[in-house]
Automatic annotation (TrEMBL), chain A:
Domain Circularly permuted ATP-grasp type: 85-463
A Pfam family reported for this protein in Swiss-Prot or TrEMBL: CP_ATPgrasp_2
Protein name (database record): Circularly permuted type 2 ATP-grasp protein
Matching SUPFAM superfamilies: Glutathione synthetase ATP-binding domain-like
Species this chain originates from: Maribacter litopenaei
TrEMBL record, chain B:
Transglutaminase-like domain residues: 173-230
Taxonomic source organism: Maribacter litopenaei
UniProt-listed PANTHER family: BLR5614 PROTEIN-RELATED, SLL1049 PROTEIN
Pfam families xref list: Transglut_core
High-level lineage: Bacteria, Pseudomonadati, Bacteroidota, Flavobacteriia, Flavobacteriales
Name assigned to this protein: Transglutaminase-like domain-containing protein
Database matches in SMART domains: TGc
Amino acid sequence: MSNIESQIFSSYQRNPDLYDEIYDSNGNIKDIYQKLFDIYGEHSIQDYINLNSKAKASFFNQGITFQVYGEDNVQEKIFPFDLFPRIIDQEEWDIIERGSIQRAKALNLFLWDIYHDKKILKDKVVPLELITSSANYLDQMNGVNPPGGIYNHISGTDIIKHKDGQYYVLEDNIRCPSGVSYVICNRTALKRALFGVFNHYQTHTVTDYAENLLEQLESVKPKGVDIPNCVVITPGMYNSAFYEHSYLAKTMGVELVEGRDLFVENDFVYMKTIKGPVKVDVIYRRIDDAFLDPLEFRPDSALGVPGLFAAYKKGNVTLANAPGTGVADDKAVYTYMPDIIKYYLNEDPILNNVHTYHCSRPDELKYVLENIPELVVKPVDEAGGYGISIGNRLTKEEIEEVKKQVKENPRKYVAQPIMSLSVHPTYIDDTESFEQRHVDLRTFTILGRDKEFVLKGGLTRVALKKGNLIVNSSQGGGSKDTWVLKNK
Amino acid sequence: MWKEYTVTYKSDNVYDNWVHDAYWQFLIIPVENETQKLLEFDFANSIHCINQYSINGFGFDTIKVHPKKKFKQISFEATFKVLKSNESTPNENNFAKIETSLNEINSLNFKIDFERYLRETSLTALPKQNKGIFKFESNTGIFENLLGLNHWSHSHLKYIAGVTNIASTLETILNQRSGVCQDFAHLFCAVCRHNQVPCRYVAGYLNHESGYLGNSQMHAWVEAFVPGSDG
């Protein structure tokens, strides 16, 4: 037993049925984690508690907080951060990176197709009903050519490691995926708390995200624009991800604006400044489609900019991500991803898909209704972990309720086998010790004109409640710094 | 034969308090196609705001007005001169044979290409219990079926002004069996789409020999696409 196991990990219990990322199948610490163990072993549990408190304070002081909608007493919370990092070696990362790019490119081609020729529908690879019944399909996007041909400029791909040791994609997020600021802030917090550990590992930086994002935004500037003026538009300070909006604007060196700061005149977008109107060419929007333009979508939206969509349609401004991308991150469309990748890229998927049952198909609906305890039932158009039912955690009454909901609107639901997310040692405040907790990984992929980039790190999210499989921050999840090694 | 029409649109808006910011988007410019040409138009407002000519999400021409000063009252006046062709009403001889038409509307490619005009919307959704309220005859041409639907809808609903509003659903309309032009149009659209015939709602002015019908609320009718025709 090593020094570390006698101290910080003295009460760490390994469940042999779970895939523990730091132990191999023989119960030995994996090589890439050994040095980290040795270093952490130099600290007592009290040291660790002190370091953890400092890291928390660092997050509060930097204002890195979020809010959870729907709670009676809405308060700013910090996104709980765990000081024990997750390590991914170069070989595994290579698969994740190539797989994330492959999916982002395929989704981009898919979006172009369904808003133009619709060949994939005519070739019966994806059913027409799946697209037209999607709440996120935007009729107004038909025939629109987004500058640079890019729809999903920023994609967030949620990936898990199953107990078979393979990576599986749980979902693609291509509306306004959030979380990237935590990746960068987690690295900063860990460096502040335990700088020495970085001397022993060659890790890729994560601080190059903002420069890559800006480069990408500039690459998709409208025609005829020489040096584009880019801005980030936010719904405002009450949005749960406002910190991230302001962080990205600040680190890119561009203005953070709200809808009321912009106006449209003769189909060009301008920003109000004390020196007069300044034309805006590229908008990284963190506002949902429905709120972008009250003249075109929800007339009661005070968050958007009247006339923005017409300016976009005329090619005078770029919106990143493009409106209408949500149709491709519908969880029912996800199930066709292997076919979509094959159809557009003529490649086999690099990352696995989790087998998914469509409740809209009568035979699959029957199977789902009969096997809910073995399945995860998800609404197709929700984000943030809302509306998910994990079969083996439900009471009889809850199972009946899920059945009722699914039967009432089968198109709204898909179901998947309950995947066993890998676990990672995570410091738990209540027990003042490390315990196994489930983790996933969100990668951030950027597509621009002739440009693709995956942030070498990603957001490892941890389900802090024991046994919980839902890692979203809104559901009580935390996060870890994620190291991608430069060599094996 | 072409005939010239002049359409005038007026609107007067009065507010209790000062209005500091407002946007209007007017979708009133007549479309141009093979049956009508826009000769000239004029659009003015009482506080002399500049017109911004743009498009909406579906590509139709719009006029946007965004006053830069506060106001309590604003009026708009639009005048359009339109040249309209006096084409004869289509008849069944203009269209493809029944079998050809049915094959076409039942093909996947047709459903994909015309999806926008086949999709059920909140105002063109037939209530569950009324899905089969008017069935198209399979041994009759689509155009004849449309004539039949037109005839049936006028016998099924009674025109009564003011009994519905712009948000009235077909459930309400079919329950009370009355409505105005927009309700007749919504019912016609709903049945067409339910029978896989693409169609769209049209707003405009209707020539009634001595002039045209409608005010700022305009008249409403339906355009349906019959396979084998030009439109």
